[in-house]
C-alpha cells in the first residue's frame, strides 16, 4: 500500500514536470529570433515633435492644440500621394496640410508663413531623452541600426546632424528614393532588399500604430514605442514588443 502511494506520487510529479517542460518548450518556440538589423522610424520615434508646438501654434493663431492634427493630416495625404501615384515631397505635403488645417479652422495663413512654421523647426527637432543612451547600448551590443523615414534624404540627414544621431546609424533610408510612402508594404520590402535580410531578421521600431502595422504585415518583427498621445491601431496585428520608451526595449533585447 505504501509502495502504491509512492508510485502514485512519483507519477504525478512526472506529469507535472512534463507539463512544465512542455510549457517551457512552447514558450521557447515563441521566442523571437535576435534581429540582424533594427530599423527605426524617425519623427516622433527618435525625434521629439513637441518642440514644434510653438511654431505651428503661432502660425495657427495660437492654436497649439492643432499640432497633432497637422501631423496626422500630413501623414494622411502622403498616403493619398502614394495611392493616386502622384508623389510629392514630404515637406511640400507638410506645408499643404498646414494650409488645410488653417482653412478648416478659419485661420488666415499663406504658403510662406506655413513654410516658416515648418521647415526650420522640423529640421532641428531634438531627440527624445531616452534615445541616445539606448542607441549607444544597442550599437555596443553589435546591432546594425538603420533608419527608414518618409522624410527626404536631405531632411533626415540634417535632422540627424542637428540632433547628434548620425554616428549611431549604419545607413539612412528615405522613401524619396522609391517615391512610395510608408506604410505601403513596398516601402518595407525595399528596405529589406537594400539590407539583404529576410523580413523576420529585421525589427521595425516606431511610435506610430500605422507604421508597425505596415511592417508587421510585411513580415518584420515590430516594436511599438508608446510615446505620449500615441496608440496602436486596434484592427492591425499585435506588435512583438510594446514599450513606453527605448530604454524598455533595450532591456528586452539581448
TrEMBL record:
Gene3D superfamilies: HAD superfamily/HAD-like, Putative phosphatase, domain 2. Residues 1-27 form the signal peptide. It is an enzyme of class 3 (hydrolase). The keyword Metal-binding does not apply. SUPFAM superfamilies: HAD-like. InterPro entries: 2-HAD, HAD-like_sf, HAD-SF_hydro_IA, HAD_sf, PGP-like_dom2, S-2-haloacid_dehalogenase. Keywords: Hydrolase, Signal. It catalyses: an (S)-2-haloacid + H2O = a (2R)-2-hydroxycarboxylate + a halide anion + H(+). Its EC number is 3.8.1.2. The keyword Hydrolase applies. Catalyzes the hydrolytic dehalogenation of small (S)-2-haloalkanoic acids to yield the corresponding (R)-2-hydroxyalkanoic acids. Belongs to the HAD-like hydrolase superfamily. S-2-haloalkanoic acid dehalogenase family. This is (S)-2-haloacid dehalogenase. It comes from Pseudoalteromonas neustonica.
Amino acid at each position: 500500500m505504501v509502495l502504491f502511494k509512492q508510485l502514485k506520487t512519483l507519477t504525478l510529479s512526472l506529469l507535472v514536470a512534463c507539463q512544465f517542460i512542455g510549457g517551457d518548450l512552447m514558450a521557447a518556440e515563441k521566442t523571437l529570433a535576435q534581429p540582424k538589423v533594427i530599423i527605426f522610424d524617425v519623427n516622433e520615434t527618435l525625434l521629439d515633435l513637441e518642440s514644434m508646438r510653438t511654431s505651428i501654434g503661432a502660425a495657427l493663431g495660437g492654436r497649439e492644440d492643432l499640432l497633432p492634427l497637422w501631423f496626422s493630416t500630413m501623414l494622411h495625404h502622403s498616403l493619398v500621394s502614394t495611392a493616386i501615384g502622384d508623389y510629392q515631397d514630404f515637406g511640400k505635403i507638410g506645408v499643404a496640410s498646414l494650409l488645410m488645417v488653417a482653412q478648416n479652422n478659419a485661420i488666415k495663413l499663406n504658403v510662406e508663413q506655413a513654410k516658416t512654421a515648418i521647415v526650420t523647426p522640423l529640421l532641428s527637432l531634438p531627440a527624445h531623452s531616452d534615445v541616445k543612451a539606448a542607441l549607444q547600448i544597442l550599437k555596443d551590443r553589435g546591432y546594425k541600426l538603420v533608419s527608414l523615414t518618409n522624410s527626404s534624404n536631405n531632411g533626415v540627414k540634417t535632422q540627424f546632424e542637428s540632433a547628434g544621431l548620425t554616428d549611431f546609424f549604419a545607413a539612412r533610408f528615405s522613401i524619396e528614393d522609391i517615391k512610395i510612402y510608408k506604410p505601403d508594404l513596398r516601402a518595407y520590402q525595399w528596405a529589406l532588399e537594400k539590407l539583404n535580410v529576410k523580413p523576420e531578421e529585421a525589427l521595425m521600431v516606431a511610435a506610430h500604430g500605422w507604421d508597425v502595422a505596415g511592417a508587421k504585415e510585411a513580415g518584420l518583427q515590430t516594436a511599438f514605442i508608446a510615446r505620449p498621445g500615441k496608440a496602436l491601431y486596434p484592427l492591425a496585428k499585435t506588435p512583438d514588443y510594446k514599450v513606453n520608451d527605448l530604454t524598455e526595449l533595450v532591456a528586452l533585447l539581448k
